[in-house]
Each structure stands twice: as structure tokens, then as C-alpha cells.
UniProtKB/TrEMBL annotation:
Species in which this protein is naturally found: Camelina sativa
Main location: cytoplasm
Cofactor binding note: Binds 2 iron ions per subunit.
Similarity section: Belongs to the myo-inositol oxygenase family.
Protein name per UniProt: Inositol oxygenase
EC number: 1.13.99.1
Cofactor requirement: Fe cation
Enzyme class of the recorded protein, top EC level: oxidoreductase
Taxonomy of the source species: Eukaryota, Viridiplantae, Streptophyta, Embryophyta, Tracheophyta
Catalytic activity: myo-inositol + O2 = D-glucuronate + H2O + H(+)
Keywords: Ascorbate biosynthesis, Cytoplasm, Iron, Metal-binding, Oxidoreductase
Cell location: Cytoplasm
Length: 312
């Protein structure tokens, strides 16, 4: 079975990718980041020999992205998020190991990301291996790289085949005002929470410094994988869980919005998320990974941080 998803496209893994592409990292900032990131040599061209984020020539694609966010911004309400967390928090759909989930996701082929023409499992392993090279002692971060996108199984028929807008794309809090830095913010006007006085103030249903753990995030693969990891009693450090849950939260990590909801632990974990995000994008280059060669290492990490079978 092959399911075509737009994963890492602007249209959808908008989270990992659209975010970075659309939220205004300038070329200069990008270069600076690379220089500062000693040891990690980020490729400047992708598999097709173009520079990353070469979207300008593709106005049609842009329209697709915009339409994606229109639907996303209308649909992600407090009620919707609560319903999804309630439903998917039951973890009663299947039981499988982390590696089995990698293989399941690998059946999904990404067609629409101009920076990626490889199967998901290669993206996952490229991210993990790139981190491993620069941070050899942080084995939890290698594993986080491997599993951060596994929540995309929500697109699979056995997981309810959720629409793209409820699986990928940038994420943001619901239950308080939508920050203007969120991509295509204008479409929130059509969100039913937009005019709700309980939900449309700076703090909304939250309090200052309440901690992101207590914040409802728009529903997608990030929050789902976080729930799966937590409920299956992973022993990953809190920074790993933080990366999984917020890796598409671009309003926070690029625009520094919503910082007033963070507590001290979030601030600490944020440092690792910033490290991680560079690899999530730049690992999408043509460094082919020999899956069988690295598999034993990742199986040992899975064994260290997760039970043999997880509920999903
Ligand atoms: Fe992602
Ligand atoms: Fe990713």
C-alpha cells in the first residue's frame, strides 16, 4: 500500500518545513546560523541541485500552502483539540514497536516537498545521524531525531486517515489569542474561537508562566507523538518530549511569541529545540543512509528509552 502524503511540503509538514520556509528566516540569518553551528556542515543545495526553500517560482504551490493554512486555521479550535486529544489519547488503535512505526511511515511517499525526494525513513535517519555526528554523547537526541515525525501515522487509514490540516503544518496554542506571527494569520478570523472572549485575550484560559505542558496546542503529529511517548512511559528526558511536542511551533521558536506561557523548564528545553530544528531542515540533503547499517544502533536506543511494544 502506498499513501501519498505531502509530508515535508509546504503544504503540510508545514510544521517542520513550511514553517521554516515561510516564517521569514532570511538568507543572512540562515548563513549566520550555519557559521555559528560549529561542526555541522549544512548543505546549501538539495537533491535537485537547487538552494533550499526555492519556492518563488512556484506560485501554485504557494496557493496550495495558503489554502492548507486557511483550512487549518478555521478547523483548529479548542473544542477540536480537546476532542482529538480525548480520542487519540485512548491509544486503542494498535500496538507496535517504534521501529515498526518507522516502517509504517516509510510506506508514505512524499511527493510535494521540493527539498525531499526520499522516503520518510531516510528523513528520520538523516536527521538522527546528522545530530549523532555533532552530539555523539546525546543518544536521547539521536532517538528524538528518529521518532519526531512518527505521529504522521495519523494520515494512515488505520489511524482515521486524518486530513493534512489536522496532522502537519505549523502548530500554535489554542484557547488564547492567535499571535500575528503565525503564518497566514488572517484566516483565524474564520475560526469560531476568534470572537470568543474566553479564548481571544493574551492569556485566554492560561496564566502567565503556566508552562507549555498546560497549553493546548493545535492538533497534529507533534502532539500525538508526544502523547504516545508519554503515555507509554518513555524514559526520554523532558527535552526530548519538548522537541517532539513543539518542533512545529514556529511562532515560539522563530518569532518568540507566547514566551509568557513558558516556565523555567521550558526555557531550558528550548535550547535543545533550537539545536534540533537545524537538523530537521538541513538533513534533507542527498546523504543516503544505509538503513540496515545504522538500524542496530537505533534499535538499542529504542530498547533503552521505550517499551518493546507501544500503544498507539
Ligand atoms: Fe514534524
Ligand atoms: Fe521532520
Amino acid at each position: 500500500m502506498t499513501i501519498i502524503i505531502d509530508h515535508h511540503s509546504d503544504q503540510n509538514d508545514a510544521g517542520d518545513e513550511i514553517g521554516e520556509k515561510n516564517q521569514g528566516i532570511t538568507k543572512e540569518e540562515e548563513e549566520t546560523e550555519l557559521v555559528l553551528d560549529a561542526g555541522f556542515e549544512a548543505p546549501h543545495t538539495n537533491s535537485f541541485g537547487h538552494t533550499f526553500r526555492d519556492y518563488d517560482a512556484e506560485s501554485e504551490r504557494r496557493r496550495g500552502v495558503e489554502e492548507f493554512y486557511r483550512v487549518n486555521h478555521i478547523g483548529q479550535t479548542v473544542d477540536f483539540v480537546r476532542k482529538m486529544r480525548q480520542e487519540y489519547g485512548k491509544l486503542n488503535r494498535t500496538e507496535m514497536s517504534i521501529w515498526e512505526c518507522c516502517e509504517l511511515l516509510n510506506e508514505f511517499i512524499d511527493e510535494s516537498d521540493p527539498d525531499l525526494d526520499e522516503p520518510q525513513i531516510e528523513h528520520l535517519l538523516q536527521t538522527a545521524e546528522a545530530i549523532r555526528k555533532d552530539y555523539p554523547d546525546e543518544d536521547w537526541l539521536h532517538l528524538t531525531g528518529l521518532i519526531h515525525d512518527l505521529g504522521k501515522v495519523l494520515l494512515h487509514s488505520s489511524f482515521g486517515e486524518l486530513p493534512q490540516w489536522a496532522v502537519v503544518g505549523d502548530t500554535y496554542p489554542v484557547g488564547c489569542a492567535f499571535d500575528e506571527s503565525i503564518v497566514h494569520h488572517k484566516y483565524f478570523k474564520e475560526n469560531q474561537d476568534y470572537d470568543n472572549p474566553s479564548y481571544n485575550t493574551k492569556y485566554g484560559i492560561y496564566t502567565e508562566g503556566c508552562g507549555l505542558d498546560n497549553v493546548l496546542m493545535s492538533w497534529g503529529h507533534d502532539d500525538y507523538m508526544y502523547l504516545v511517548a508519554k503515555e507509554n512511559q518513555t524514559t526520554l528526558p523532558s527535552a526530548g518530549l519538548f522537541i517532539i511536542r513543539y518542533h512545529s511551533f514556529y511562532a515560539l521558536h522563530k518569532s518568540e511569541a507566547y514566551k509568557y506561557l513558558m516556565n523555567d523548564e521550558d526555557t531550558e528545553n528550548m535550547k535543545w529545540l533550537k539545536v534540533f530544528n537545524k537538523y530537521d531542515l538541513y538533513s534533507k540533503s542527498k546523504v543516503r543512509i544505509n538503513v540496515e547499517e545504522v538500524k542496530p544502533y537505533y534499535l538499542s536506543l529504542i530498547n533503552k528509552y521505550f517499551p518493546a511494544k507501544l500503544k498507539w
